[in-house]
Amino acid sequence: xxxxxxxxxxxxxxxxxxxxxxxxxxxxxxAKAGSHCTADLSTHKTRCYGSFREVIAAATGGRVTDAPATxxxxxxxxxxxxxxxxxxxxxxxxxxxxxQNTVVGGIxxxxxxxxxxxxxxxIPSACKxxxxxxxxxxxxxxxxxxxxxxxxxxxxxxxxYSDIYYNGTQQQYNTSTPxxxxxxxxxxxxxxxx
Length: 194
Ligand SMILES: [Ca+2]
Ligand SMILES: [Ca+2]
Prior knowledge:
globular, 5 helices, four-stranded antiparallel beta sheet, alpha+beta, binds calcium ion, five-stranded mixed beta sheet, Gamma-B Crystallin, domain 1
């Protein structure tokens, strides 16, 4: 039988091995390519799913379950985009949306032309046309300096900022944008929906 001390050494070696793996992953920016996650803008919690379709099903509270298989297809699919932006079609869905933040406010993509990993921003209710900003994500954390394309949704415009807490240069995107432009590409550190 292993002594407690021997077990501790094995655990320590394993942790070191895992730490080594993490360091390698960090050194390789493409390690996370293809991950599809949601970020809840009122709690700042993120959650990742096996596919873009699963992200959209979760992000809409089960309202949109037939999203195109890839974000690239989704970006060009006008029927899907209309469905994504449609208001909840029953009072029960409206309540679910409010309880679970199941309105999509926008989608951020790692690569140009809606490629690579995606981050779907969820909000409790659609943006209002009042000239004020509605929702924000003051620190993109894992998504810092990665965004290359965006799709605004939920009656929101997406404003990207080059620094956290809405500092630095700012650019606003009012429609699906396959390339955020040289000035903002791989620079966004915070985002507002307005
Ligand atoms: Ca990028
Ligand atoms: Ca930045």
